[in-house]
User: Fold this.
Amino acid sequence: MIKNSKNIKEEIYEEAIRLEKGILYSEESNFILANYWNYANTLLGVSIITCSVISGGFAFTDFVEFNILIGVLTIFITAISMIQIFLNPHEKSTVNHNVGTRYSKLRSELRIFYNSEINMNSDAENINRLKAYNDEKNRIDVESTNIPGFIYNKAKKCIENNEHEYL
Assistant:
């Protein structure tokens, strides 16, 4: 059965809405994960600085009893530093934030498309634009890190409660 132009535009509109919803979940998940990595980076960095200052302060005392504490703090500083180097939370935070920003930009473009441009374009042009938006989402998906389930669930809850991290 051949569909008339109005039905095709409605289907394109509905598909654009579905695509926007998927983008919103990906966007929110990446922003939340960026916040977690930023928090981890701050926590590790502050721990390293604090322990270094304490260890350095004890190093200049005349009390032999502090030598063991200085040794323990030095080992702790080394372990935290290695964890920070291995995890690289600053880089991960930056990547997730940038991916979230790209999703946000795509979602805005898609919203403009289905709210105003869809009625000015031919059906073929609308289909091509929708495919282009979907292709861009797929490209961003490839560059995105894996989102843990608890992050996705938090994003879902934030969206359902209209409490977005960034919007």
Observations:
- The longest helix spans residues 5-59.
- The mean pLDDT is 91.
- Helices lie at 5-59, 66-87, 89-115, 123-143, 149-160.
- Residues 108 and 121 are 18 Å apart (CA to CA).
